[in-house]
Design goal:
Length: 376
Amino acid sequence: MNEPFLVFVVDDDPYILIIIQGILEHYCQVETFESVEVCQGRLSAVKPDMFLLDVKMPDVNGLVFCRQIKDDFALKHIPVTFVSSQESLEARLKGYEAGGEDFIVKPFQPEELLRKCQAAQQIVKERFALARQLDDSEMLSSLVMANMDEYAILVRFIRELISYETSQDIADGLLEMLKRFRLDGVVQTRVLQQVLTVSARGANLPLETSVLEHVRGMGRIFEFRNRSVHNFNRLTMLISNMPVHDAEFCGRLRDHLCIAAECADSRLNAIEIQEINRHNQAGILDAIDRLAASSNHVRGAYLRDRASCAELLMMLEQNLSRVLAHVELSNGDENSLTHLITNFSEDLLEVLDGGEEICKAMEDLVKRLGQLNRGQ
């Protein structure tokens, strides 16, 4: 972005506005407002890159203003971070339901506020294209829903599940299924210590991730008001708009969602096993390569040593012959000495030939390990 990152801060406490402006003014451009009404007047002329909204304010509070922002096509892609004195799950859920992207609790540290702004700046870079794609797909989704009953939606998801190869594929598939059911939700996958939180608004949004981290430990399946949560080992799915007014339809949806979530969790387990197997196989191949290199090194050293010993023995025999030519020994002593040298040479070469057996054993081991790794 070429223009400075612009933040609108709305809080009825002038002291808080001064603090926030002092923290952010060296990092980005800041405009402060003591009421929602004053901020709304400014929006007719300038659109910010981020909103920082106090939750509790007289007249129009931050939650209501956030809903207005998200209902306005020209503003809906601007990230909203709430500033609140409450840190409860209920407070975070209210912020999530209002459409906020992040949440900061008073009193906050300057470094934390700067991190929130940096996270919002990243969201701005990715949000517009995604939002437009979602808008374009809403009409298609409605048409598909009109021609596909709820059982067919579930069957279609399960049929396509086997083709998904990554956590992202599964999360996107679940969100597509929810959209066909006309449900809004967030999906979190956990594979090999890698956590991915995805919704229709993007991936790993801080507030959504925070909410999922809170609810993932609250039991396998539980509900509160119009929300429903399905927790499995590698998957958590939060639905925020269950049709509780239609008890029969809502009950069927619970069953469908439970089946879909359990199947998705099983597929994530299979993906994790595949990743572990690929990692292990890579380790085995590396070990085989190292063993083969060691075998080649041992064979080369063996051949060099055997050649050197043969050369030394030949030199010993030649030197011995020259010495014996100038020394007067009896035939018996000369034969005994020659026999001793010959036996020593044979014994030495026999010891060296044991290295050949080691080389062959190592080469055979490398071959058999390679066959096992290929499943032969």
